[in-house]
Each structure stands twice: as structure tokens, then as C-alpha cells.
Amino acid sequence: MSNRSTGMYTPGGLVRKRGSELLAHFSVVMTDQLRHEGIELRKAEEISVRIMKCMRKEFGGQNVYFAKETSQKIEEKAAAIYDKWQAGTAIEELAHEYDHSIQWVYRLIADERARRCAERDAKEANRRAADYSRWKREN
């Protein structure tokens, strides 16, 4: 299958008349993964091109966001960043260490602070409810 008509990127190099560079890169990554799974190069390229055509048709014109990590991993990172920030590490250092923008580090810190406050408030509410329940039983 010739990739010249589809404008896709192949392991042999970029062959593009028109089309998305991101989809072309996806195609290369997918081809590499298929090759890693033992699929012959020509077949891997054909599969990746067909999938990219489907992706273009399905998502064309849309902005798509891919998170770098799972939400659990982000929460763990936010907790670590918050703890280091509380210990005095500068925001700029944290941004560099975790490979995030300064704005994103501020957001992680704010989210973690809010999460911890909500957790603390919930524990306090439970303690008060238990105290009230005990008081009601005793009086």
C-alpha cells in the first residue's frame, strides 16, 4: 500500500501532501507497536493507515486532550508536590522537578489543599456527629 496518496508518515520518512502531523505521528507509533507484536511491516502500516483514516473521520475538527497520567498518579504527585511546597521548596523548583508548568504546579497545590481541607472537615463533622450522638444517649 502506497502511503503517498494518504499523506502518512512511514518509518522510511515523512511522505505528506496534506494531513495532520499528529495523526502521522500516531500512525508511526502504532506501526512500531504492531511490529513489536510481530506483525509484518507492510501489514502494520496498512492497519495503522486504516485506523488513522477512522480517527480522522471520527474526531476530525475536534480538540483532543490526552492526560499524561492517570488521575490516581496525578493525585499522588499532587500530594508529594504539596508536601514539598509546605516544606519550603519553591514553586519554580517543583515545576522543574516534576516537568510541569508553574501554573500547573499552582493548580496541583490548590487542588491538594482543597482535598485535604475537605478531608479534615469531613473527619471533624464525623467527630462532632459522634459526640452529639453520645451526648444524646447520655442525656
UniProtKB/TrEMBL annotation:
Superkingdom in the source lineage: Bacteria
Organism taxonomic ancestry: Bacteria, Pseudomonadati, Pseudomonadota, Betaproteobacteria, Rhodocyclales
Positions of region (Disordered): 120-139
Domain Mor transcription activator: 18-120
Name of the protein in question: Mor transcription activator domain-containing protein
